[in-house]
Design goal:
two-stranded antiparallel ribbon, 10 helices, about 35% helix, alpha/beta
Length: about 280
């Protein structure tokens, strides 16, 4: 109690709102979330304006055209998804997946060790192979590569100053971080989002890269049938300011605006941003 009295009221209010969000996430359903967001029309690989192919293009370009590579890649807040490391797994010797929720970590472990998943990732692997100039039939080889380099699926809490347990990373930090739709969807307000961005920067070595994908103008998304999870509604100015405040040099910022038929009622997102930044 005495320690709490010493905290500023605004910080205490933020902690309470974070606790409310954590309670909300206890009802998160990975299978429903994957169905809502990672099937057509949002994951239609025959459409150039579909959101998932856009994200995969952004990640592919960042890892290959800019030759981002190294020893350790950390995916911050993986959720139950794999797409965000399909390009990066070819560029790093070790990949760490992470999530706050045990149900999401278990979903990832099931695919890694048993080949079981609530979503068939085959078309994703095929598409990334084609982006890399390989035959789509090489998808099984890419899946095997991803399984071989993922060394762990770790618990993470981006609201802690040390989000991962000690010893999870080399002392110098990771070479690259990827994070997709995590920070804004677990933060109750913009200051919490910015603090979380600063917290994850502690995982990254100086000069390392951050590839950040997030929602624009979104106030909620469905985490399960009937479960509306609040989201910080970000805009371009806020994203840039938060990156700068967290010690990043912004290298690239791209935007995707949802066509009307991508607004399928599972959120109120208006667009998506992709940011490439370097830790100063």
């Amino acid at each position: 109690m005495e320690a709490h009295k010493e905290r500023p009221k605004t910080e205490l209010d933020g902690l309470k709102r974070i606790a409310v969000m954590e309670a909300c996430y206890q009802h998160f359903d990975p299978a429903a979330y994957l169905q809502y967001n990672y099937t057509p029309p949002r994951a239609d690989f025959e459409r150039s304006d579909s959101i998932v192919p856009w994200k995969l293009h952004c990640l592919h370009r960042a890892f290959t055209e800019d030759d981002i590579r190294g020893d350790v890649l950390v995916d911050v807040g993986s959720g139950p998804t794999l797409y965000q490391v399909m390009s990066g797994c070819e560029r790093f010797e070790r990949v760490l997946l992470s999530d706050f929720l045990e149900v999401n970590r278990r979903e990832l472990q099931n695919w890694l060790h048993e080949g079981k998943s609530s979503l068939d990732w085959t078309d994703y692997f095929r598409y990334v192979c084609e982006l890399e100039g390989r035959s789509s039939s090489a998808w099984a080889e890419k899946a095997a590569r991803l399984r071989s380099v993922v060394s762990d699926v770790l618990p993470i809490d981006v609201h802690l100053s040390c989000p991962l347990s000690p010893g999870s990373l080399p002392q110098c930090g990771a070479d690259c971080l990827v994070s997709s739709f995590c920070l804004e969807s677990v933060s109750p307000d913009l200051p919490s989002f910015t603090r979380a961005l600063g917290h994850i920067s502690s995982l990254l070595k100086k000069g390392g890269h951050l590839l950040l994908i997030g929602a624009l103008g979104e106030s909620f998304y469905m985490g399960a049938p009937g479960l509306c999870i609040p989201v910080v509604p970000l805009d371009e100015v806020q994203v840039c300011a938060s990156l700068k405040a967290s010690g990043y040099e912004l290298l690239q910022l791209c935007f995707y605006h949802l066509p009307p038929d991508m607004k399928v009622g599972v959120d109120d997102v208006t667009g998506v941003f992709f940011a490439k930044a370097k830790k100063a």
